[in-house]
């Protein structure tokens, strides 16, 4: 390991201790952390790793820095990178209709099928229902079959009208990659990103992951009970481009390093052009909810405003596993900072907030964005206007009044709800201002936002969980 002369070395023992302490505090069974500080030259990089806890409470196998976790939706940035490589090569146009590549594309809204573009997919603005997890098997034709089944997926909002997090769109993007390259998404990822970056512990398939120390997710259906291992390890293969990459925290920071280095691998190989690297980080669309995650989106990347400092990154969630990546571009003699945290259950958002607050303050003098909290004195808002049922694939949310306040009953539905063990929960909505409420699940310290809003055509939505949930008539 080499370090930049201008800065003291990152204190590995300190961050190991903090990871141990905070993971225990927030009931996280196991976690691994990688902190990569990129120097101004190729010899100036500094990598510090820490690991804590167990991979599986049933076996007691310890987490090490070489342990592999599911990084979930951080995979979307990898898929977006593949898309931008094809843009660099002149094989794809972000603003051309997808039917130019997929002439047989059929969606519930025929007009959307004719007009939807890759830019819509990478910015989550297509309006295709984002949580369609159709299991189309294990064969190499899974994405072809998945896209064919999208004809039955609801259109949650008009094309380009708002932002709604869309897993479906990235499986569709993965299919476009397959058609353009003539190879499976898994093979293209391996050839174009995993191998050029020298990522020795990154894969997409269970039979590849099992060659390493692999984390098992843990869930807590009842807040009063301890977490236990999940009974379903992985999402369907058809969700690959949206969230099926397995990796160490170290490999995730190596991927981030390429983006900090204008698309270059550690050996200087050009993986992505500098122009496309910058385009991915640039502003594309705003979020209706600027409190729960970032304030805007790039091409694949989430954009964060931390008290005037612009960061980018992504989070990921699968069956009982959560991953976090934040990237701070270079400043004051540094090539930038990338921090990856991978976890397998517990109150991971609380662990993330506590740990990253300390890390970025100490290593970069950057303060994490303030958390949304309900005011001490509740404002006077019209609660009745928000009462109703809001529904999308995989989730139904019933909002109703009780004891002078609003409650959201969140009901998981469909095959994924059964596989994950998710159960119905009721959440109090604490008013912050008209249309904005703070929500906190039992046992958590971190608040989320519930935002009620309407489109210009009058259609009403609840933006919750980074998704636009349309109100049922």
From TrEMBL:
Top-rank taxon: Bacteria
Chain ranges of the Beta-lactamase-related domain: 16-355
InterPro entries: AmpC-like, Beta-lactam-related, Beta-lactam/transpept-like
PANTHER family attached to this UniProt entry: BETA-LACTAMASE-RELATED DOMAIN-CONTAINING PROTEIN, D-ALANYL-D-ALANINE-CARBOXYPEPTIDASE/ENDOPEPTIDASE AMPH
Protein name: CubicO group peptidase (Beta-lactamase class C family)
Organism: Blastococcus xanthinilyticus
Source organism phylogeny: Bacteria, Bacillati, Actinomycetota, Actinomycetes, Geodermatophilales
